[in-house]
Amino acid sequence: MVQSDARDVDAYLGEIEDDSRRAAMTRLRELCRAELAGFEEVMAYGMPGYVRAGGGQEIGLASQKQYISFYLMRPDVREAFAARLEGQNMGKGCLRFRSAAKVDYDLVRDLLRATAKEPGRIC
């Protein structure tokens, strides 16, 4: 699934055919909901996203053809975690995992906690 027309995150997750990917995406969603207090869960750009009240989308999740992607739209958080992100498969604002088994939930949790701590510039 590259981009979805799902109306909500439950429908998005229901579209994921691979059980291990759906489980990984569900776990990522649970982490987002637990760590991003005060954020609204939305569907944006064809994927689940998390928006701080009065701000823009700071986090996104996607089950893509070759990756499970975690979008971190906060350059300040990426810079603060540069050492831990070194060697990871990164795009400009995207942390990519080749398979459900390779998702680093501890890293994602720490990135979410840093994002939730205070507002910052979104790229």
Automatic annotation (TrEMBL):
Gene3D superfamilies: 3.90.1150.200
Residue ranges of every copy of the YdhG-like domain listed in the record: 21-114
InterPro entries membership: YdhG-like
A Pfam family recorded for this sequence: DUF1801
Top-level division of the source organism's lineage: Bacteria
Protein name according to UniProt: DUF1801 domain-containing protein
